[in-house]
Specification:
mainly alpha, 6% strand, 14 helices, 339 residues, 4 strands, 4-stranded mixed beta sheet
């Protein structure tokens, strides 16, 4: 018997492929539980697109239907407002001759059947080699970067102006950053990363969720699948593999591509060049679906208990090591990976 999660994935694939789902009728209680499950994963509006494709007798009714509709409308309203703010930024950038690149959510929405169904929490932007000028253009000349970016609000929309694209804690992240920045010596007119550079960035960004919290949002893997689907004619699989081998994250590419193939119901076999243990695919899927994660070790613990706790945390996550950005040597050094 299909679980609620199984039914969510059936509707997800229906939405992403714009074809009616083959499902049996849901009870009101199931529709309500499914709503909260989809909300947990940030895909209510995407699932609502699948509901719109169903015949009337299979759709939710009454207040439950209203919950789905209102949530979807909020997502679409927010997306439209973000586009208005982005248009203002674009006009200023053109006037000043300052190139910029859109990152993550607003750049990925174009790969979905309905771009405004993909929730975008903020606008991530990069002014290559011009972080300070970018802050000034956005109206916050004194903004300081915390980590990778400076954060500001324009007309209620959060803008993250990136000083760098990735955390630079490990060699693979530094190599990936250098590769992407090299591709931006000439910024594309469409304000998007070139496909190969975007492939590297999206993969490293996805993996970064695992290094931080042993947690990975479902939407990140869906984004990965929709990106690959839209760009598979422009990406040479052998070049992808050779590039990622040099960077040091080829195993993650194979794992997440296999998961994305399942989530989006797309054939990505041309990209999967190495064997991924089935148990690792299952473990990662379970992690994504459950959103369970190993808590960080408090920094104020005494040295010996903290060291023991960090070793235990490493042991719990050891199956994940081949898919993380750190090398074996980097993982050993001061137990640095799981601080």
């Amino acid at each position: 018997m299909a679980t609620l999660t199984d039914k969510m994935f059936i509707l997800l694939r229906s939405s992403l492929n714009q074809r009616p789902a083959d499902i049996s009728p849901f009870s009101d209680e199931e529709w309500q539980k499914l709503f909260w499950l989809a909300r947990k994963h940030g895909i209510v509006t995407i699932i609502n697109d699948a509901i719109d494709l169903l015949p009337e007798h299979l759709k939710p009714q009454g207040d439950i239907a209203l919950s789905w509709t209102l949530s979807a409308e909020r997502t679409r309203y927010h997306y439209a407002h973000q586009k208005e703010v982005l248009q203002q930024i674009d006009e200023k950038a053109k006037a000043e001759g300052l190139p910029y690149v859109l990152l993550k959510g607003m750049s990925l929405a174009r790969f979905y059947p309905r771009p405004d169904s993909r929730p975008c929490g903020d606008i991530d932007i990069l002014f290559p080699q011009n972080f300070e000028r970018g802050n000034a253009l956005l109206g916050f000349p004194d903004a300081k970067a915390v980590g990778k970016h400076a954060e500001m609000k324009i007309d209620g929309v959060t803008i993250e102006n990136h000083r760098q694209l990735l955390d630079l804690n490990y060699d693979s992240q530094r190599r990936a950053e250098a590769y992407i920045m090299e591709s931006l010596r000439t910024v594309p007119d469409d304000h998007f990363l070139p496909p190969m550079a975007n492939m590297v960035y999206l993969l490293m960004h996805t993996v970064s969720h695992l290094t931080a919290r042993n947690k990975l949002p479902l939407r990140n893997v869906i984004d990965w699948g929709m990106f690959l689907r839209a760009n598979r004619e422009m990406l040479n699989p052998d070049e992808c593999i050779s590039t990622l081998k040099r960077i040091g994250t080829v195993h993650a590419f194979s794992l997440f591509t296999q998961l994305a193939a399942e989530y989006t119901d797309t054939d990505f076999s041309m990209f999967i060049k190495e064997h991924v243990p089935a148990k690792d695919v299952t473990r990662m899927n379970d992690l994504i679906v459950s959103q369970s994660f190993v808590e960080a070790v408090p920094k104020d613990m005494p040295f010996i208990p903290r060291t023991i706790a960090r070793l235990k945390r490493r042991s719990q996550r050891r199956w994940m090591f081949p898919y993380l950005p750190a090398s074996f040597k980097e993982r050993l050094k001061f137990l640095k990976l799981f601080h």
